[in-house]
């Protein structure tokens, strides 16, 4: 995990924690509130890669619950499926990887 900060004229403009997988692909961007340093869940993004191909992209609500998860099974941009918290359980039938990490915006599971 790395922390990334961006400054403009010595003023902090951007602060985020970035989590990487074993291939060094970004699997989570957790943006932090510049004052409280707490996660801004509605800006959190999570990704799942398979062989350098982005298989899943997830976004979240203000409370950290899943807003939407896009499943892209192949390189065809027309071939994708959308999931949310109501049908999230169906996603596990489509792929081999454990997708429980994508259920909410938590950066690191407990």
Fold and architecture overview:
A seven-stranded antiparallel β-sheet has the order 1-2-3-4-5-6-7. The protein is globular, with a radius of gyration of 15 Å. The chain has one helix at residues 88-91, and strands at 2-8, 11-20, 26-31, 45-50, 53-60, 66-71, 81-83. Helix content is 4%, strand content 42%. The chain has a single domain, classed as Lipocalin (Beta Barrel). The two termini are 15 Å apart. The chain is built from one helix and seven strands. It has 110 residues and is mainly beta.
Instruction: Report how far the terminal alpha carbons are from each other.
Output: 15 Å
Task: Please give the count of helices.
Answer: 1
Q: Could you describe the largest sheet, including whether it forms a barrel?
A: 7 strands, antiparallel
CATH architecture classification: Beta Barrel
User: Helicity, in percent?
Assistant: under 10%
Shape: globular
Low-confidence parts lasting 5 or more residues at pLDDT below 50? none
Measured by DSSP, the beta-strand proportion falls in 35-45%
* Structural class by SSE content: mainly beta
The rounded Rg comes to: 15 Å
Within the largest sheet, what's the order of strands? 1-2-3-4-5-6-7
Number of strands: 7
Short account of what is shown:
With 110 residues, this protein is mainly β. It is built from one helix and seven strands; from the N terminus they run βββββββα. The chain has one domain (2-97): Lipocalin (Beta Barrel).
Helices, strands, pairings?
Layout lengths: L1 E7 L2 E10 L5 E6 L13 E6 L2 E8 L5 E6 L9 E3 L4 H4 L19
Antiparallel strand pairs: 1-2, 2-3, 3-4, 4-5, 5-6, 6-7
């Amino acid at each position: 995990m790395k922390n990334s900060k961006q400054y403009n004229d010595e003023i902090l403009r951007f602060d985020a924690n970035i989590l990487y997988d074993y291939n060094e692909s970004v699997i989570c961007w957790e943006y932090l509130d510049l004052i409280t340093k707490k996660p801004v869940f509605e800006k959190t993004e999570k990704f799942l890669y398979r062989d350098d191909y982005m298989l899943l992209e997830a976004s979240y609500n203000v409370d950290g619950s899943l807003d939407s998860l896009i499943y892209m099974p192949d390189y065809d941009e027309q071939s994708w499926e959308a999931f949310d918290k109501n049908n999230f359980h169906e996603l596990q039938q489509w792929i081999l990887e454990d997708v429980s990490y994508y259920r909410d915006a938590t950066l690191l599971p407990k």
